[in-house]
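User: Please run a holo structure prediction.
Assistant: Happy to. Please share the sequence and the ligand.
User: Here you go; the ligand is EPU.
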Amino acid sequence: MDKFIINGGKTLQGKLEVSGAKNATLALMPAAILASGKSLLMNTPELNDVFTMIKLLKHLGAVINFSNHILTIDTSKIVEFIAPYEHVKKMRASVYVLGPLLGRYGEAKVSLPGGCAWGPRPINLHLEALKKMGAEIDLVDGYIETKAKKLNGANISFDISSVGATGNTIMAAVLAKGTTLINNAATEPEITNLVEFLIKMGAKIEGEGTKTLTIEGVDELNSVEIKTIPDRIEAGTMLIAAAMTRGKITLTNVDAGLLRAVLLKLESAGCKVEITEEKIELDASDLEINPTNISTSIFPGFPTDMQAQWTAFMSLADGTSTVCDTIYFDRFKHVPELVRLGANILVNENIAMIKGVKELNGAKVMSTDLRASASLVLAGLAAKGTTEVLRVYHLDRGYQKIEEKLSSLGADIVRVSGKEY
Ligand code: EPU
């Protein structure tokens, strides 16, 4: 298990290219199952979650080549319909194979994901939607076993907007018989990227990017090429890194339109933000951090995947702010670790009250999940002295070589490998 050693206090400066979006890639990859042939995914990030999905797709029989951020997935010989526990326990997004396998082959057996690092994350909505489309679903020995000779279109209305349930349902519906209507579909850009891919493949989907999707099933789809959208969460994380170190950075390969809520909050906090075509420049050279409240919500609201990083940022604000997570009530595992670095934060239910402190001080802290770990790295970059972030394998799941990217901007951060961390 590797750790990061960060000598804080270095001002970040320079230009950085943002990678392709993890959560888009993790939906696009299983979607390739829906056609027979070679799909090409451009701008694919090199992340451990992507490697886990590669292993899973290979296990199903796909032939995969990955170089230079181009991922080729050949699905001509899918022979297996089981997503084993060993893959799903590593990465919940493995459940994304459920919809495509069921839609194309009429059967799928997927290990039921347990809770995650910060609490329960059910998949009842995925299963209810598939049931409505005519799938038989049983839970056997910890596995969801699903079968359907042919799925039928259905009217599906989600009580909660869910990225995963929307993705799975769309993927099941594109080859179903008849029309599927999805109400309260997730409008996150990663889902829109998936819809764009499926339409290119020949799927008939209306309502792209809206809460109402109409999908008319077709007999077959063709393998095509798609470009993964830029990772808005990596972009937001890097902007906060620059803000916390009073730096000035320019991000390239980025889509500011996908990050509007975060950019507006960065401006409220006192950062100067400039947007040009495919670039975002943030200048925090003379920043006095204004306490700025956020409340997470579905797209285009402030993303829950940026909540931990914002909490770290506000711990250095000139006053008190609140951070409320309305998507995941328990997603506050980073707070006790930030407190170890000197932050003053109290959590009450799903709201963190953050009293800004003058400075953070280096300490050993423990990563618990991906975005919590990112917040610790940010705090370490701004802290006085040395911070050790243990268990950085969480970061490797979702940030491509974050330490190299931060070093290229002037951060003093190194990875140390060793069993004991
Ligand atoms: N929910 C249910 N039942 C379900 C599905 C979801 O109650 O069947 C609830 C969840 O408990 C949560 C809300 O609905 O309260 C939204 O969850 P959603 O299904 O949208 O989350 P997800 O699809 O499991 C994706 C991202 C997460 C991100 C969330 C919210 C991927 C692979 N993961 O998860 O990303 O936090 O959407 O935007 O796309 C991350 O990248 O760090 C990460 C956790």
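The chain has a mean pLDDT of 96.
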